[in-house]
Amino acid sequence: MRLIVLGPPGTGKGTQSRMISEKFKVPHVSSGDILRENVAKKTDIGKKAEVFMRTGQLVPDNIVVKMMAEILGKGKYRNFILDGFPRTINQAHELEHLTKIDLVIYLSSSEKVILERLSGRRTCSVCKAVFHIKNMPPKKEGICDKCGGRLIIREDDRPETIRDRLKIYEILSDPLVFFYSQKGLLREVNGDQPAEKIFSDIAAMLKKEKLA
Ligand code: AP5
Ligand code: MG
After folding, report:
1. Domain 2-109+167-208 falls in which CATH fold?
2. Taking the complete model, does pTM exceed 0.90, yes or no?
3. Residue 84 CA, ligand 1 centroid: distance in Å
4. Domain residue ranges in the chain
5. Residues classed as catalytic
6. 27-46 as b/e, with b when 16 or more CB fall inside 10 Å?
7. pLDDT 10s digits, 157-171
8. Tens digits of per-residue pLDDT, 71-110?
9. Neighbours of ion ligand 2 (CB under 5 A)
10. Do the Cβ atoms of 117 and 12 come closer than 8 Å?
11. Closest by Cα among 112, 129, 137, 119 to 14
12. For position 204, what pLDDT does the model report?
């Protein structure tokens, strides 16, 4: 299966992509995670991307497209779940040159839910596992259940940056909903539901489409 998981910041793209990846043994490819890794390692891409990410702006298309083309173009992934890419119409066109997409899962969400999810998110500084202080709390406060690492707040999860990310999503990424629905590839799932219910809706959809 070659999926795109699309949706506003904080709607649960990463959470659902990881669940789909574990259940169906399909690699999860997150442009945001790859970029954050580059920032942490201070690579050339990371040095260029850092300021955009910290302020909630999109990293310029030429940088992201080149990075993703190297990953997807190597023939490394016959199946994948793309999380966070494409994010602009230009990126979607570039992706068409790289590979074929079977389905786009669009997680819709209300702004109230998004703000609550992003303001309570905690990420493991070591293994990058994601928690939420209310919805998915770790067993021990501030400590990752999986590896014992320290949980931190993502730099772009500050309230003023969250607002900018949502505005940018609306202008640059929301047009992708129309783009993929016109191609008959878009399937909408209510992202305001509990994570397990969203996942069971997605799993039923994948089965119906004969992708799982
Ligand atoms: P990216 O990392 O992709 O961030 P995002 O799109 O803003 O989305 P998030 O990762 O914040 O949210 P999510 O939808 O994955 O939600 P999650 O599952 O964590 O991008 C970051 C930055 O990188 C961008 O701003 C940009 O600068 C750059 N970038 C990346 N890709 C790019 C591209 N293609 N082009 C240009 N720039 C790019 O869940 C959120 C919280 O809610 C968690 O705490 C979770 O535990 C909780 N939660 C999840 N689901 C549920 C549920 N159903 N019920 C209750 N709580 C839930
Ligand atoms: Mg994410």
Report:
1. Rossmann fold (3.40.50)
2. yes
3. 8
4. 2-109+167-208
5. 13, 87, 121, 154, 165
6. ebbbbbbbbbebbeeeeebb
7. 988 899 999 999 999
8. 988 677 889 999 999 999 999 999 999 999 999 999 999 9
9. 14
10. yes
11. 129
12. 97
